[in-house]
Amino acid sequence: MSLRQRLLLNVALVLALSLLVGVSMSYWRAAGKIRTELHSAFVVGEQVLEDGAKGLEGSPNPYQKLSGIIEQFNSGRHLRVSLLDMNGERVVQSHLEAPDEPAPDWFYKILGGPPEGARVSVPPNIQGYSAFLIEADPRNEVQEVWEDLGNSLLLASILAGLVSALIYWTVERELKPLDQLRHALSRVAEQDFSMRLVEEGPRDLRAVTSGFNHMVGQLDEAEASKTLLEEQLSTVQDEERAELARDLHDEIGPLLFSVGLDAAAVQKSLGDRASHDALERLESIREAVSLSQKRVLQILGRLRTGTVEDLGLQAAVERLIEFWTSRHPGLKVRANLPEGGVGPELDPVVYRIIQESMSNAVRHGHTSEIEITVGVEGDVVRVHVLDDGGGLKSNRSGHGLTGMRERVASKRGVFSIGNRPDGKGTLVEAEFPASAIQENASNPLRQAQDNHEDLIG
To answer: What is the pLDDT of residue 441?
Structure first.
């Protein structure tokens, strides 16, 4: 059961208990009121009968006065008076005022209680009659209590409904930050640290949302630092591999080539004068040199950096997209690139623009979609990178933007960056003249490998 349901259930139980207590108190008050009022009416009525009975003793017309005594109790609300014969049977009785809408029998049984009654003897000069019988009848009082209780219950139900609605609205409003927090935590579980909560509601919940925002901010910074370190580590690894490849090519390669030439020269100079054992040893040296050259060539192949110079623009961008989407599962990237790239001179520059734009979009813009377009339109090479993130927060240029501008300028291109026209994200654009496309650029590592292949060949 959720916290919201528990709160509402507790409120409903409190209201129901309050209603039950109210009904119980109303019952005790009503029962006491009925008993008190009936007893008071009974005492007064009994006194009236006793006074009337005394007045019959000296009356010249006692039978007429006897009827008047009974009639004065007609249309009463609480008392019924009967005249009894010598056998105790009712001869005549007064008429009570009937309630308009009688209470149910079960309610009457609860509040009515045992009827109160008494007999008042008639004087001996009244022949054929023995006594007056006076009885208290609670029906009219019970009917009044029934009406009052019904009205009270109706009013209490309306108030309870209003209170419940008010409490429900208040609970929904005050606990709304918890729903947002639950949604935000699910986003965090998906490695999305861009979610920020509005700090609203009660003070305790504001403290929770503030703590969450601080935590997510720290995670966001940690993720950005981690990504930056991964990029730097990848760059350092590429540089180390390139340096190691150059060392192998520039130092080990010539040495092996020299050893092979020297062994061939010695074998040629000795000619037929060399012993069979010496010729075998020289041949073993040449085979060892050849095998070492092949092993160095294999090592050079593994040391190739795998960047745009080695893979080509399209494959390098696909690898970059895989890098970011693997770390941000919710990120969607669409890329439209020419199959052969835009030339060995521009491919590295275009790749760096895409790389820096994607890094900024994910790390700072908290984007969910990125669209990359590279194409040649007439005499212009165009590069567009759009995202749906938060857009630029200021006009300040970091090292990444400065580096992109410098690379584009080095190829006589034009670079621009700004918020999208609809305000939902950032647009990075670069344009290069088609004359910047050249076909004669080469990769140093690949050149090193090719040169080494020449040594072997």
So the answer is: 40
pLDDT (tens digit per residue) in 91-118: 888 887 777 777 787 777 777 666 778 8
Are the beta carbons of 131 and 84 closer than 8 angstroms? Answer: yes
Q: Can you list the pairs that 114-117 forms with residues at least 24 positions away whose Cβ atoms lie under 8 Å?
A: 116/38, 116/39, 116/42
151 and 61 in a single domain? The answer is yes
CB contact at 8 A, 193 and 219 = yes
**Do residues 208 and 126 both lie within one domain?**
no
Answer yes or no: do 276 and 137 share one domain.
Answer: no
- Cα separation, 47 vs 58, in Å, equals 19
* Helix or strand (DSSP H, E) at 117: strand 117-121
Q: How far apart are CA 310 and CA 241, in angstroms?
A: 13
Q: Answer for the pair 184, 208: CB distance below 8 angstroms, yes or no.
A: no
The answer on 325 and 278 residing in a single domain is no
- 122 with 129: CB under 8 angstroms? yes
Per-residue confidence (pLDDT) for residue 383, from 0 to 100: 93
Q: Is 371 exposed, middle or buried, given 0-12, 13-18 or 19+ CB atoms closer than 10 A?
A: middle
Q: What percent of the chain has a predicted confidence (pLDDT) above 70? A: 87
